[in-house]
Amino acid sequence: MAVFQWLGISPFGLMAQLLLGLINGSFYAILSLGLAIIFGLLNVINFTHGTLYMMGAYIAWVLLTHFGVNYWWALLLCPLIVGIIGMLIERFLLRRLYQLDHIYGLLLTFGLALVIEGLFINWFGVSGDNYDVPSQLSGGARLSFMYLPYYRIWVIAISLLVCFATWYVIERTRLGSYLRAATENPRLVQAFGINVPLMLTLTFGYGVALAALAGVLAAPVQAITPVMGANTIIVVFAVVVIGGMGSIMGAIVSGIVLGIIEGLTKVFYPVGSAVVIFVIMAIVLLLRPGGLFGRER
Amino acid sequence: MKRMIGHSLIGVALALMLAGPAAAADKVSDGVVKIGVLTDLSGIYSDLAGEGSVVAANMAVKDFGGTVLGKPIQVIKGDTQNSKADIAANIARKWYDDDHVDAIVGLVATNVALAGMEVGKQRHKITLVVGAASLPITDQKCEPWNVHWIYDTYSLAVGTGRALVEKGYKNWFFITANYQFGKSLQHDTTEVIDAGGGKVVGSVLAPFPTRDFSSFLLKAQSSGAQVIGLANAGSDTINAVKQAAEFGIMGSKQIVAPLLLFISDVHSLGLKTAQGMYLTTGFYWDRNKESREWSKRFFDTFSKHRMPTMVQAGVYSATLNYLRAVKAAGTDDSDAVMKQLKSMKISDPVIQKGHIRADGRLIHNMYLVQVKKPSESKYPWDYYKIVSTIPGDQAFLPANKSVCPLIKQPYHYGK
Fold it and tell me: Taking CB atoms and an 8 Å cut-off, how many pairs form between chains A and B?
């Protein structure tokens, strides 16, 4: 008890803050997972990730306000639409750069992100739009230590489910083994009759579909603005670097853990909460340049 | 004979009419009165200022008649790209030095305003700041060729802070954006709360920008404060309010008081979330017949079809009164126009019974409003109930508290 007194927070208060950290962590996990898959399998540092996350949220908003399509359908449709957009980007733009250095892919996606963001500012303005929490998930549970909105519980559940299912497919199934093999030696895999270019396109599509899913999940809890992705993506990149570029499990675990650490920083040293993840990134890079779960290349 | 006298009188009158403008025209530099709208056209302030400010300035020119002292009036625009002070200073320099701009209106963020003011001050050229909020613009950093229109952090603090303390909301918890604007807003509001016998029970400095406020809100919730004061702006405020609703704070005993909220923010939050909140504004479109008529014209003229924010309305008022001052002074010379501006009454569809103090502060009524419930809103943009009018002499920093040297020793315009 003395410890809690010294920390200036009650045990219940701390528990509540840990839970909030876990919620944010699951957001980071689902975003960094998409980035990690794309980097791990395509070697592309995808700077459009944040923008496509924003696009996911906007498509959900447009579907609801203009077409009356509800949240649950949006959860399915937005990743699908954004996935298709992603596949077009991969097929017609990124594919031309595979022979070149990583930096070209990074520059292309960065430029693309700026263009898309600019277009969205032009179309939707910057002050953002509102998306209500779906009626089935509105309200919350009055726990003894906090009021926990049902929607947040749902976010944790679906994020963890999607993250671990993805991990399972890539690491534990035959399809996943093709994918991993294709990144090691695409020619050899192609020789076995597997359509590697198609596989890469689908992978990119899936990676950005995860970003769009995160966008739909975020839509009811924050302002939907054209810059929401740009504000988030830098942190997510740091998460991926800490986990180890390209490591699937690394992205998931470090996403969750860093969400919790960030949450605790908000309690004990709020002004530091914007930089804590970057400080950790710097330390990790100094001690383990390959990231916590990564291999050094 | 009578007829002849009549004719010659008409002739004299005509000659006078022709000579009048011709004489005055010599006093209009470069044969044109040019107003530069320097604002954020593409960044995070582009909804509350942006293109709408340019529309407002053009409306003012049109309402004024399109010419002044027989010379054309021209409006040009420039983009400060969010709040880039260096870009603002470069544009201002080019405008004043090469493009014959006579006055710059806009300047949305504090750093941009201070940069623009510095350029104007060196050249004795006029800046009309509409949008930036920090008090120092007319306090520590005041200068003779600047006017601060519509609002500042002090007036927001007085409006919302004092009113809530008087209503019995005495214990406050602040969630403050960790930069100059947030801190000065908290500081100014804290003074008002203390003066009213209230107390600040806690505060937290949130990084800018913050996506998730739930940790801070939880802290505020458990602090037992009656009011959670949001000393932030834009998407930070929107996120905080949205999440306060999600965590069951809105509609509970605790109230949320955003210290700076534009009507564009309320529009994007929606009344369902924003209902019941108190806020302070320098202009509300639906306040009276005059403001309503003007705002509807703005709505129709503006391609995005939105009602004006207080910043856009302020740009209209600033431009219109600048032109009136040019006309009354008979010249576009900065000193003469400033002298005129500071001696005349400011009155138009936006500002009633305003005047400009020696430090450049426009003194006028501010309004404490409450956001309507969805059921009370009868037509689009019907968002506010005006709870009280805060008279100008109470709404702004009193002259005796100002550290601006111009208050004690007004500048003597004219060489």
Answer: 102
| Residues near B294 by beta carbon (within 8 Å), at least 6 away in sequence | B313, B316, B349, B350
Residue range A96-140, pLDDT digits in tens: 998 888 899 999 999 999 999 999 998 998 888 889 999 999 888
ipTM of the modeled complex:
0.87
Res. B21: pLDDT tops 50: no
Question: What dihedral do alpha carbons B144, B149, B152, B157 form, nearest 10°?
Answer: 130
Q: Which residues of A touch B266 (CB under 8 A)?
A: none
- Work out the burial of residue A12: count CB atoms within 10 Å of its CB; fewer than 13 is exposed, 13-18 middle, 19 or more buried: middle
Considering only the beta carbons, identify the residue of B47, B214, B242 that sits closest to A127. B47
Q: What is the pLDDT of residue B126?
A: 97
- Give me A200's structure tokens: 């890469």
Residues in B touching A16 (Cβ below 8 Å): 218
Whether residue A223 and residue B247 make contact (CB cut-off 8 A), yes or no, is no
Flag if A121 and B273 touch (Cβ within 8 Å): no
- B270 close to A (CB below 8 A): yes
- Residues of chain B with pLDDT > 70: what percent? 93
pLDDT in the model for residue B23? 45
Contact A147 B269 (CB under 8 A): no
Would you say B190 and B200 are in contact if contact means Cβ atoms under 8 Å apart? yes
CB contact under 8 A, A267 and B219: yes
Q: Is the pLDDT of residue B281 over 90?
A: yes
Note whether B268 contacts A: Cβ–Cβ < 8 A.
yes
Asked whether residue B208 carries a pLDDT value surpassing 60, the answer given is yes
pTM (predicted TM-score):
0.87
The CB-side HSE value for A35 (13 A sphere, CA atoms) comes to 36
- The answer to whether B47 contacts chain A (CB < 8 Å) is yes
Cα–Cα distance, A19 to A34 (Å, whole number): 23
Whether B267 and chain A come into contact, CB under 8 Å, resolves to yes
